[in-house]
UniProtKB/TrEMBL annotation:
Subcellular location: Cell membrane
Keyword Membrane in record: yes
Membrane association type: Multi-pass membrane protein
Stated name of the protein: Transport permease protein
Provenance organism: Nocardioides caricicola
Length: 243
């Protein structure tokens, strides 16, 4: 792995994102708009404070997963990936470059989403807001890593989107948004313990209910480990081109 090549890949991706106004709007504006919509729906009720932490973990994760998987597949199907890998660049340089670039976008996305939720929409937070933002960033990076991973198994952009019911929706259903995880049936609770989004939601909910941050760091480490594992698997399975 070369830091110079990794940086060049990241800079190239950031330039592409900056020029693609629709993708940039989806990455930065859409999560904020969706959170604001839900706040508006449940104004003057305790519902937003109850589901807001889970949404701050969920929306960046979903958006980054979709955009990253489709963008990476487009690079391969268009032949760009094959040309890049013909240069003195490894697969890990490519994936980490993408991870760094989308990580920068994820940081901006999370700062905006947390700032709007806490500063403008009045989401109650007991823990430090900066740590809430860190959890949101790491969760968005997890979505990026999983998007990079699943793009290796799709042949079209439509197929990349089809991975969402397999990878994303089960995590949404079992993360504690609809029912507390300790109230799930035993088998579903065991499955929930294996899903990274569960730990991101747990960290968010802990920060909104208590100022104690010890458990948050443990949950954050689990999410980061899943993200690193997904990037490693992505590097091992990445193909130069779509058959």
């Amino acid at each position: 792995m070369s830091p110079r090549i990794l940086g060049a890949v990241a800079a190239r991706v950031l330039v592409q994102i900056r020029r693609d106004h629709r993708t940039l709007a989806m990455l930065l504006v859409l999560p904020c708009a969706l959170i604001t919509l839900l706040w508006w729906m449940f104004e003057d009720t305790p519902v937003f404070d109850a589901v807001g932490p889970a949404l701050l973990a969920m929306f960046p994760f979903i958006v980054m997963f979709l955009v990253t998987s489709v963008t990476t597949l487009r690079e391969r199907s268009g032949g760009t990936l094959e040309r890049l890998l013909a240069m003195p660049m490894g697969k890990l340089d490519f994936l980490l470059g993408y991870g760094v670039a989308f990580g920068v976008v994820a940081a901006a996305q999370s700062v905006l989403a947390v700032g709007i939720s806490v500063g403008l929409l009045g989401l109650d937070v007991e823990g430090p807001v900066w740590l809430l933002t860190v959890v949101a960033v790491v969760d968005a990076v997890l979505g990026t890593a999983l998007g990079l991973f699943v793009s290796a198994f799709a042949q079209t952009e439509f197929q990349a989107v089809q991975f969402m019911p397999l990878i994303v929706i089960p995590q949404i259903l079992l993360c504690g948004l609809f029912i507390p995880r300790d109230q799930l049936p035993d088998l579903l609770g065991a499955i929930s313990d294996l899903l990274p989004l569960s730990y991101a939601v747990d960290a968010m909910q802990t920060l909104t209910t208590t100022s104690e941050t010890g458990e948050v760091w443990g949950d954050l480490a689990v999410v980061a480990a899943f993200a690193a594992g997904a990037l490693a698997l992505g590097a091992a399975t990445l193909r130069r081109r779509t058959p």
